[in-house]
Amino acid sequence: MKTILFTCLIALSGLTVRAQEQKPEPKDGEMKQYFFVMLSKGPNRSQDKATADQLQKDHIANIERLAKEGHLNVAGPFGDEGNWRGIFIFKTKTLEETKAMVESDPMIKAGRLAYEIHPWWCQKGVKFQ
Predict the structure, then answer these.
(1) Would you call 117 helix, strand, or coil by DSSP?
(2) Which of 14, 24, 47, 102 satisfies CB 3.0 to 4.6 Å to 52 for a cystine?
(3) Rounded distance, CA 103 to CA 78, Å?
């Protein structure tokens, strides 16, 4: 009996995964999941000015690459000197995919920035720019 129940649970979980994979893309005006990334000051901000400046240039180049590839909808800094440094909004499919893209950022790799990722919902078709 336990074997039959276990087999049924495995089969049902497989159906759930396939149903999620086959879920149609929402139409404009319907809710769609994005990933909101809050960037904050990281644990390693001791770089000299030349290194920090180069990291900033590389950070911007990475943002431009991710946007050009169609993964990143919004990126921008905050205008004060608080702990929060900026945000990203990704239109990726999974948390893992988003995490890999965030961790490709030179500022994250260097520890100058840290991050938190949160699933975020917004109407599909909303223009961010």
Answers:
(1) strand
(2) 47
(3) 20
Q: Which of 52, 46, 43, 68 is nearest to 106 (CA)?
A: 52
d(CA 118, CA 16): 23
Q: What is the pLDDT of residue 118?
A: 97
Domains belonging to the chain, first-starting first, are 27-123 (3.30.70.1060)
Distance CA 129, CA 54 (A): 27
Q: Which residues pair with 31 in a beta bridge?
A: 123
**Confidence (pLDDT) at 21:** 52
Q: Are 98 and 37 in contact (CB under 8 A)?
A: yes
Provide the whole-model pTM. 0.75
pLDDT digits (tens, 9 = 90+) for 88-120: 999 999 999 999 999 999 999 999 999 999 999
